[in-house]
Design a protein that fits this description.
This is Cupin. A hairpin with a 2-residue loop joins strand 1 and strand 2. The protein starts with 11 loop residues before the first strand and ends in a 13-residue tail after the last strand. It has a single domain (13-112), classed as Jelly Rolls. It has two helices and nine strands. With 119 residues, it is mainly beta. The strands form two sheets. Strands 1-2-3-9-4-7 form a six-stranded antiparallel beta sheet, with no helix packed on it. The chain has a three-stranded antiparallel beta sheet with strand order 6-5-8, with no helix packed on it. The protein has helices spanning 42-45, 47-50, and strands spanning 12-16, 19-26, 29-36, 59-65, 67-72, 77-80, 85-88, 92-97, 102-106. The longest helix has 4 residues, at 42-45.
Length: 119
Amino acid sequence: MAEIKSIEKPDDRRDFPRGHLEVVNLTGLVFGKATFEPGWRWTESVRDLAGTDLCEVHHNGYVVQGRMRILMRDGAEGEVGPGDVFVVQPGHDAWVVGDEPCIMFDFAGGMGEYAKATG
């Protein structure tokens, strides 16, 4: 079996304050391309959509452009930038660092529900 889709023709697009997410669904994989504009912060832009205090999505990702700071529930912090591959467990806040949009790919599968309105 071969299954091929282009992120340029996503199955779904979700807009939220200062950013958007494009998603393609393949067998066994939900792949997301997220664009976060300067000034984006999860607790300000997505919290109300998610209905949780922190992001509770597991992320496996790759940063294409820009920088993002991540603050875990336990106080641990890190920063990712272009070329970085990362794993972030549920229970975090994150925000764009600097004046450049942060563009990243996520292939953990959790993006299937990311930034979907609850309720």
